[in-house]
Amino acid sequence: MLTKRIIPCLDILNGRTVKGVNFVGLRDAGDPVELGRYYAAEGADELVFLDISATEEKRKTLAALVRHIAAEVDIPFTVGGGISSVEDVDILLKNGADKVSINSSAVRRPELISELVGKFGSQCIVVAIDAKEGKEGWKVHLVGGKVATDIDFFSWAEEVAERGAGEILFTSMDHDGTKAGFANETLAKLSERVNIPIIASGGAGTMSHFKDAFHSGKADAALAASVFHFKEMQIRDLKKYLKKEGIPMRI
Fold first, then answer.
1. What's the CA gap between 10 and 123, in Å, rounded?
2. Cα gap 226→178, rounded to integer Å
């Protein structure tokens, strides 16, 4: 049986790690490279770095950060934020990223997924989907959750898988930062609709929430931010707990 993965997520704004609730109310959580080094030593399986900055020098700044991370961190890491072309991905992978995450750019031009998979392979391409539940079901949101669309979440996830993406990173905006648990019912439904790994994001607050994401939600990996950034939970302790609960873990 494949081991499940624990993935700290670092949202980066102007070179610093930040964290909010429901995508707003950001507060500083530390230096991303230092945190990445710490999490690698703590036993994290992978890391995700999402640059939520918007600057003209974005690509150069992000490439420099990726080089720095690659020199300091010895576990796989994914980088996302404003990636919209083959050239963007090429620069990040050449500077040391193991995978890239695309979101809004893929929704706006789905062919981008196919292009990136064709050039770099499925294993490098993660498609992040931010979604929120409304009267008409789960709908995709763009630009860090700021722009609502009428796009059905499950239909979009199916297209993402069909176009060859290696993984889906699903963030429930309703659960993000609430520490009330993951969107397990939706995760389980998603796992039935697509045949690629799913990373659960949004809602981690206790160790049992991770267990539920793997058991009830059928997730392949669980991602969290604030519970790790603010030392509310240690990754080594979490993985020991999950292993005792019968969930396959790399320890």
1. 21
2. 10
- Express each pLDDT in 173-183 by its tens digit: 999 888 999 99
Q: Who's near 71: CB < 8 A, 6+ residues apart?
A: 96
Would you kindly state where each structural domain of the chain is located, as residue ranges? 5-244
* H/E run at residue 188: helix 184-193
pLDDT band at 24 (very low <50, low <70, confident <90, very high): low
φ/ψ (deg, to 5) at 133: -90, 135
State how beta strands 137-142 and 125-134 pair.
Answer: antiparallel
pLDDT tens for each residue of 230-247: 899 999 999 999 999 999
CB 202 within 8 Å of CB 183: yes
Q: Which class would CATH give 5-244?
A: alpha beta
Measured distance CA(211)–CA(188) in Å, rounded: 13
CA distance 41 to 33: 12
Name which of 31, 25, 34 is nearest 177 in CA terms. 25
Q: What are phi and psi of 184, to 5 degrees?
A: -65, -40
25 burial (CB, 10 Å; 0-12 / 13-18 / 19+) is: exposed
Six-digit token string for 225: 């931010």
Catalytic residue ranges: 11, 130
CB 155 within 8 A of CB 194: no
Query: Burial, 121: exposed, middle or buried (Cβ in 10 Å; 0-12, 13-18, 19+)?
Result: exposed
What CA–CA distance (Å, rounded) separates 175 from 170?
A: 11
Indicate if the alpha-carbon torsion angle 18, 53, 126, 121 is positive or negative.
negative
Within a 10 A sphere around the Cβ of 107, how many other Cβ atoms? 23
